[in-house]
Amino acid sequence: MKINTTLLLLFFFTMTIQLSAQDFSELFKKTNPSVVVIKVIEAESTGTGNPYEKATFGSLGSGVLINANGSILTAAHVIQLASDILVEFPDGQALRAQVVKISNESDIALIKTMKAPKNPVIAKLADSDKVNVGDQIYIIGSPMGLYHSLSVGHISGRHIEQLDFSRAGKIEFFQTDAAINTGNSGGPMFNINGEVIGIVSSILTKSGGFEGLGFVATSNIAKFIMETEGYDWMGVDASYIDGKLAKILNIKQGAGFLIQSVAEKSPSYFMGMKGGFQKIIMDEKEILIGGDIMLAANGFRFNNKKSLADFLTFFQGMKKGEILKLEILRSGEVINLEWKMK
To answer: Which listed residue (34, 71, 107, 166) is catalytic?
Structure first.
């Protein structure tokens, strides 16, 4: 009788696992058509000292379709410096896309295909405030280029940081043990109802591979960015500099933002901003010099880090038609650039 009871329990436990696996199989079939592969082309300085010498390379990320017009949520770092974006759908459609909105601090971006996809399958965004630690979740993405791969796990934690310079007032990430690797970035995290509760952002690792610590931007932060005017993409990567390097570069105000890269076809590119082209090592960090240095913008002078926070709050709220005014140091000369927000 004892053996029979043990066998019965084992059978029940095995059946429970099989049912759970079957549930995820059905959920995958239901939600995978809304998940896309994002292929990005970037042009970057070789750092040899020649401002015209650039290397072009491709990178891969994931995203999720949220409306029939072709709007897609992804991670900001996937498309931050993109000169060209191609979105591939599970049914074989391949459509070019452009950046609509971006929040680097939240690692959230909204892109939109140039034309609406055919037969779109749209994902539903859930209320991430209702998600609890311990909830079972799943992620679909393209880890290491393996398109539309499924990983399953749990919510391991919730991390919230209050930010003065964020219009949302905070950034918020779920921690998860679901496997995340290169190519998963920007992909959706779903709850067991097949609703999106987050966008895959990053991992914490010492080995370079996944160690059970993944981080996912919450869907409520993504919804706030989508629904709030502003959060325009400028397509520029800049580093705050002060101290020794500021003196070497003859920045009289003592600090500024050294432009590292400018994405082709971006607003910063059409403004005429120039990125760096000579690699140097400063304080054990590789940096590109030779590019523009931002001194001020719309009355905010970048002579300390707080001025950046104040400007970011202002910039995130800029509306269509307003003018972005930059004061730039280029080759020892102060010049002014302008851009009309679109």
So the answer is: 107
Told to judge if 107 belongs to the known catalytic residues of this protein, a careful annotator would answer yes
Which tens digit of pLDDT belongs to each residue from 104-154? Answer: 889 999 999 999 999 999 999 999 999 999 999 999 999 999 999 999 999
Which two three-digit tokens encode residue 333?
Answer: 């000369």
- CATH class belonging to 236-340: mainly beta
What was the pLDDT predicted at 308? 78
Cα–Cα dist 235/272, whole Å: 12
Known active-site residue 166: no
Tokens (6 digits) for 81: 């410096």
Number of other CB atoms surrounding residue 183 within 10 Å = 23
Catalytic annotation, pick one of 45, 106, 185, 266: 185
Choose the catalytic residue: 77, 135, 202, 310: 77
**What pTM was estimated for this model as a whole?**
0.86
Task: Answer yes or no: 185 catalytic.
Answer: yes
- Of the candidate CATH numbers 2.130.10.10, 3.40.50.300, 2.40.10.120, 1.10.1740.110, the domain formed by 35-231 belongs to 2.40.10.120
**pLDDT given at position 320:** 87
Take residue 320 and report the two structure tokens written for it.
Answer: 């269509």
